[in-house]
């Protein structure tokens, strides 16, 4: 990537909003929510102030990852319609600024988390930032159609970090929360990729639908959705689960699986005919899916404080 090729020809002065956009706030909100749930459902109570500092560090770390990703991917972001208005390709923030912000926030978030909580949580946060910025962004994304499968681990670590903040360790519950997000990521992103194919193809990103075609992608969407079901239900059988979570998991998995099945049974002609209506709808369902599962875990934790939740 050439910084010079991305320099703005104007003297635009970046605003706070431009710098905040570098942090990918929508992604950050999901990270914060899942990390918070991981912290609150753990069996060890955390002082509210320590919990606040921990979640702040995780949010800042997620923002650092976003800034580093935007710095590295600025060349392909400029090609894709979905990302062309991001701060760097749009000329509102210079690449060097994004790199400096990403590095500074990375160091700040990891060190503060270590001082406020424990080194395991800080180590997991550091590894998450490294995995997203280096392993996924710099290597996997442009190297293999399995980019989103392996790279999905970066987005799956936050609840495990939250759990580690509280407990100082790793439990089957945090592993399954990690696995839930990890297995959810491929069908979620491939549903998006099916109706954004031209964007990825133009940018030279080897998404599965670009390299292996839509039929293979549709097969993978359904396959991963099927593998996701036992993970979601298995989480409900652990100490953080309960009847409310299990009911939510059964309903949401049935809904999401139906959407993925509808994607699988279609062909390109049918998708073109209705402008990928099924794919777009299933992508929306996938957003509700993850939120509902973690909200149900949080509700179970609240009910347990009243002697009502859990098995």
Description:
- Interacts with CtaA.
- Belongs to the UbiA prenyltransferase family. Protoheme IX farnesyltransferase subfamily.
- Its EC number is 2.5.1.141.
- It catalyses: heme b + (2E,6E)-farnesyl diphosphate + H2O = Fe(II)-heme o + diphosphate.
- Helix 2 (25-40) runs parallel beside helix 9, helix 3 (48-72) packs parallel to helix 6 and helix 13 runs antiparallel to helix 14 (243-265).
- The chain has 2 domains: 15-168, Tetracycline Repressor, domain 2; 171-311.
- With 311 residues, it is an all-alpha fold.
- The chain has helices spanning 16-21, 25-40, 48-72, 74-77, 95-116, 119-143, 147-151, 153-156, 158-167, 172-195, 197-203, 208-211, 213-236, 243-265, 268-273, 277-305.
- Residues 1-10 have low confidence and may be disordered.
- The chain has 16 helices and no strands.
Summed up:
This protein is mainly α. It folds into two domains: 154 residues, Tetracycline Repressor, domain 2 (Orthogonal Bundle), CATH 1.10.357.140; 141 residues. The chain is built from 16 helices and no strands.
Distance between the termini: 53 Å
Give the number of domains.
Answer: 2
CATH superfamily of the largest domain: UbiA prenyltransferase
- What class do helices, strands and sheet pairing give? mainly alpha
- The CATH architecture of the largest domain can be named as Orthogonal Bundle
CATH topology of the largest domain: Tetracycline Repressor, domain 2
Q: What value does the Rg take, in angstroms?
A: 20 Å
Q: Residue share in helices?
A: over 70%
Mean of all residue-level pLDDT scores: 92
Report the portion of residues in β strands: under 5%
**Name of the CATH class of the largest domain:** Mainly Alpha
How many strands appear in the DSSP assignment? 0
User: What is the N-to-C order of secondary-structure elements (H for helix, E for strand)?
Assistant: HHHHHHHHHHHHHHHH
Uncertain stretches of 5 or more adjacent residues: 1-10
Query: What is the general shape?
Result: flat
Question: With helices defined by DSSP (H or I, 4 residues minimum), what is the helix count?
Answer: 16
Characterize the biggest β-sheet.
Answer: none
Membrane topology: Multi-pass membrane protein
Subcellular location: Cell membrane
Keywords: Cell membrane, Heme biosynthesis, Membrane, Transferase, Transmembrane, Transmembrane helix
GO cellular component, one term: plasma membrane
């Amino acid at each position: 990537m050439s910084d010079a090729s991305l320099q703005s020809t104007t003297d635009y002065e970046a605003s706070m909003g431009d710098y905040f956009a570098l942090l990918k706030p929508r992604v950050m909100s999901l990270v914060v929510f899942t990390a918070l749930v991981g912290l609150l459902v753990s069996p060890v109570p955390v002082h509210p102030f320590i919990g606040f500092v921990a979640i702040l560090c995780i949010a800042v770390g997620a923002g650092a990852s976003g800034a580093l990703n935007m710095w590295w991917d600025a060349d392909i972001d400029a090609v894709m319609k979905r990302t062309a208005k991001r701060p760097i390709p749009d000329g509102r923030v210079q690449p060097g600024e994004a790199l400096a912000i990403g590095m500074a926030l990375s160091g700040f978030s990891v060190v503060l988390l270590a001082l406020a909580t424990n080194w395991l949580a800080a180590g997991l946060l550091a590894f998450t930032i490294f995995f997203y910025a280096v392993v996924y962004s710099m290597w996997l994304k442009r190297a293999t159609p399995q980019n989103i499968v392996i790279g999905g681990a970066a987005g799956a670590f936050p609840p495990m970090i939250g759990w580690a903040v509280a407990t100082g360790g790793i439990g089957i519950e945090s592993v399954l929360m990690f696995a839930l997000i990890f297995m959810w990521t491929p069908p979620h992103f491939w549903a998006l990729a099916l109706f954004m194919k031209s964007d990825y193809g133009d940018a030279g990103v080897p998404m599965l639908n670009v390299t292996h075609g839509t039929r293979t992608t549709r097969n993978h969407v359904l396959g991963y959705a099927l593998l996701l079901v036992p993970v979601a239900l298995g989480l409900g059988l652990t100490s953080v689960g309960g009847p409310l979570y299990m009911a939510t998991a059964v309903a949401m998995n049935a809904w999401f699986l139906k959407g993925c099945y509808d994607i699988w049974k279609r062909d390109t002609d049918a998708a073109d005919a209705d402008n990928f209506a099924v794919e777009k709808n299933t992508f929306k369902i996938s957003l509700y899916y993850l939120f509902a599962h973690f909200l149900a875990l949080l509700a179970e934790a609240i009910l347990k404080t009243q002697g009502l939740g859990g098995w």
